[in-house]
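Hey, can you fold this one?
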Amino acid sequence: MINVYVPRDTASVSMGADDVAAAIAALSKDINVIRNGTWGMTYLEPLVEVETDKGRIAYGPVTVSDVVELYEEGFLEGAAHNLCHGLTSEIDYLKNQERLTFIRCGLIDPLSIDDYRKNGGFEGLERALKLSEREIIDDVMTSGLRGRGGAAFPTGIKWNTVYETDADQKYICCNADEGDSGTFSDRILMESDPFCLIEGMIIAGIAVGATKGYIYLRSEYPLCKVVLIDAIQIAIKENYLGVNICGSGKDFELEVRIGAGSYVCGEETAMLESLEGKRGMVRAKPPLPAHVGLFGKPTIINNVLTLASIPVILARGGEYYKNFGIGRSRGTIAFQLAGNIKRGGLVEKAFGITLGEMIDHFGHGTFSGRPVKAVQVGGPLGAYIAPDNFDLPLDYEAFSEAHAVLGHGGIVVFDETVDMKEQAKFAFEFCAVESCGKCTPCRIGSTRGVEQIDGGNWELVKELCDLMDSSSLCAMGGMTPIPVKSAMEHWPEEFKD
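Sure. Predicted structure:
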């Protein structure tokens, strides 16, 4: 039998991967079609790989109309073709990454627990079960891991707070409500390596004494839901979840909850409200969720990539992970190239690569071929960055000094045709639609912002930005001024009366 890999993630399926897989399977009874996850090279999807003596040979993007021609020209033997990219592992886009969290994405069948174990899966859990809770938390602290959801809060400190808080019940909540424009790393991880997230949540539960976990998944990810629920059932069957996991005497249950379709539910306290069956509205802090979280109990809230980074940290040690990155930004982060970009996709790199290197070396410039005019990093409430600042290192402190945010690692590229006044207006419009309405600066300020940009009252726009920044209850209103002010600063000629 010849193994042929065809991805099953959302992006690939949307580009016809299911039909391509069926067409390949119909070619011969000697073909074993394996539905793997994606490597994250979205610009090549569907990427078909053939297992040969030399390794896996990649072809892409493949359509149904290409299948017969590929077969006739010998793609099952790894023959040359204009869609052939050689060995998958040697493709520059993939070869030049530092893959720690995403090391198995694209390599394995996402729902094969044997594949997961053969490629380093559960090694972190095995080590964690031999350590004390304090030793696990110390390893996470040593690693320097910070929240990959945007706030960049030190993960070890959050875990330690929950660990030291006495309670009869504690929870682990995974914020999988990935709503920022141009972001898809959480989705890729969950669809391509779901056991990695499950393992990270189990380790978190062991570390702080939590016996129950929830994955709060955005409603727009139906395939993720199917993959996660199937993976959880497999993990239960294999005794990695449930009572007395792996014979350790530890218990941990895991459940998927579907989000309410609200952007603001990506904020941790609004997510807790939604999990409790209430309207997703931001809570005032303090108390912090680490003290009074889900159902009033101490709760760890981390996003997908934070928890998915835990297995490699526990398997290889905190010092190993800390050796990647620069300054206080340690380890790797998944950058997502989107927008007007020639080679869109996911790039896992250690902190420190510059924005320009990411756009030019990985993205290969704009899809339109026109010059880049602006790049928005960190989602719809991130700053717009001009080409003059493309030497900016991609790390938390450098971005903070530049009055920008790295956020979830989304990078959206715009060419010279973009209207920056309209982009600034969009930030207010987005906030007006997505605000939970609890605080006046966010609820009213965003609507007034749209009106003032239309009216051209730039001094009032600046004053409004300062008010929202200083007075909003959460980051929704507090960050809305960031894209507005950055657009006005870098492209002032577009904001003249």
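The domain at 113-321 is CATH 3.40.50.11540 (Rossmann fold). Let me know if you want another pass with a different chain boundary.
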